[in-house]
Amino acid sequence: MEEKMSWAVADAVDYKGFPADRTKTGGWVPAALVLGIEICERLSTMGIAVNLVTYLGGTMHLPSTTSANIVTDFMGTSFMLCLLGGFLADSFLGRYKTIAIFTLIQIMGTIMLATSTKLPQLRPPPCHLPQTPCHQASGFQMGILYLSLYLIALGTGGLKSSVSGFGTDQFDATDPNEKAQMAYFFNRFFFFISIGTLMAVTVLVYIQDEVGRSWAYGICSISMSIAILIFLSGTKRYRYKKSVGSPIVHIFQVLVASFNKRNIEFPSNVGYMYEDTPAPSKIQHTNQFRFLDRAAVTVEGDFQGCGAASVPPNPWRLASVTRVEEVKMVVRLLPIWATTIIFWTTYAQMITFSVEQASTMERTIGRFVIPAGSLTVFFVAAVLITLAVYDRAIMPLWKKWKGKPGFTNLQRISLGLVLSILGMAAAALFEHKRLSVARAAGPLTATLPVSVFYLIPQFFLVGAGEAFIYTGQLDFFITGSPKGMKTMSTGLFLSTLSLGFFVSSFLVSVVKQVTGTGGRQGWLADNINYGRLDLFYGLLAILSTINFVIYLLCTIWYKPQVNLKPVVEIEGKGVDRSTMEKV
């Protein structure tokens, strides 16, 4: 019997609902099947996003600012919908069903997008000035395009919320060997999805420009279809975690309970506050955010039924001390969360205005013309190079010098923010040079006599920044959140990407309106050769610098939760678990 139990994985079941057998379920093979879904999702989403701005301007005949905002809104919505996907996975569907359903939704979106770019009725006629005037896409044509994009965004949101979590579910954290495998999977996860991005900005963008967008988007549909079939083939080998309810609901329960008891007095001793969490899972009470502690103070009417303590309490009226401390842990994350949003605002420029810059510049190598969207390959290359150098060089040196395996998550976030400031400063300086060339060449020059490779510094600096900030944020939110809120914390991290894109759209709109009054072109003209994009990049560098100072203050304020050692009860006395093991 004991031998059978040793095969079972704690808190995991197989596809039939029985305790998962570690010899038949989980491990690297099922995790790899899950990873394939994420690689194909990245291929589709980034392959569409990095080159969409050229399609909107060149084929749909939209102004540059409108095109940029459509791209950033699309990406922002994709990441914001991760919160919806996480809620559904935690509360109703589970991660497996969430991945399967939202993959099918994304396939529908890519099929519709391939169709809309193929049929001439769904795009305006090409304009060859001065023979024919340029007409912007009609409302119907834009409606079909929007429907396609936001189906893809919905699919992306559902997938991203569950893929990494379902991948780590395939490893047992209580088993030393599997825990090491899980750490390896987690550390390499970002590397593999960067490979998907690399394929998107090279192969897929080239197919879009040289063969046809409908062919490229059709490839996205086929690759996602193959990926979902491969994913479903592992059904019998996966380990599944049961849904335990949404952490978002738990947070609202604590907030509602504390608000309803805002006028009551605190008990003289913390021991009088309500606690029903088993000793190994208890979290130490802290004095920070004491207004939330009222949610754990027992008053009349908190228990459902006759008021007996054995009756479960109404969760909207009474929460345990541990549940309150979990909410406090989330609140502590918020200042760091808020100060990382600006990085993703600068990131948004790499797939919008930087691609528009590239489209005006000399992009030939011999007879080969580099697609404008493919310039982001330097961005992805910077991510991969930075990760490799950090893993193989910086971490070993840091361990010898400081005795630590690498930079802390907050230090990595700091590096990401600094590199983004330098990236925007470099972008502003080069754009100033590009504009001087554009003025000298005259308005009729389609391709400016300046090499596109001048854009490499801004791509490399922001790309290296992403390598640090992405891994740092993910580590910070995962390790700084309560055990039962890991999925939500991942959604919280991804929401910084979402808000960064939305802030970019907002900032572009504000700058366009403020600087473009009185019939002037403004900083963000419809044709960037007539604008002052260098000043816009300079503004982002200044805002990022101010944000970095605020971030540093937040890191000084931030104090991670320190848990008490697990305690067991022996004849009414609290005994440290490590002492118990010695006994």
UniProtKB/TrEMBL annotation:
InterPro entries: MFS_trans_sf (IPR036259), POT_fam (IPR000109), PTR2_symporter_CS (IPR018456)
Gene3D superfamilies in the cross-refs: MFS general substrate transporter like domains
GO molecular function, one term: transmembrane transporter activity
Alphabetical UniProt keywords: Membrane, Transmembrane, Transmembrane helix
GO biological process: oligopeptide transport
Membrane spanning stretches: 70-89, 101-119, 139-159, 189-208, 214-232, 330-348, 368-390, 410-430, 450-471, 492-515, 535-558
Principal place of residence: membrane
Subcellular location: Membrane
GO CC terms of this entry: membrane
Topology of this chain in the membrane: Multi-pass membrane protein
Signal peptide residue numbers: none
PANTHER family associated with the record: OLIGOPEPTIDE TRANSPORTER-RELATED (PTHR11654)
Family: Belongs to the major facilitator superfamily. Proton-dependent oligopeptide transporter (POT/PTR) (TC 2.A.17) family.
Protein name, as recorded: Uncharacterized protein
Source species of the chain: Trapa natans (Water chestnut)
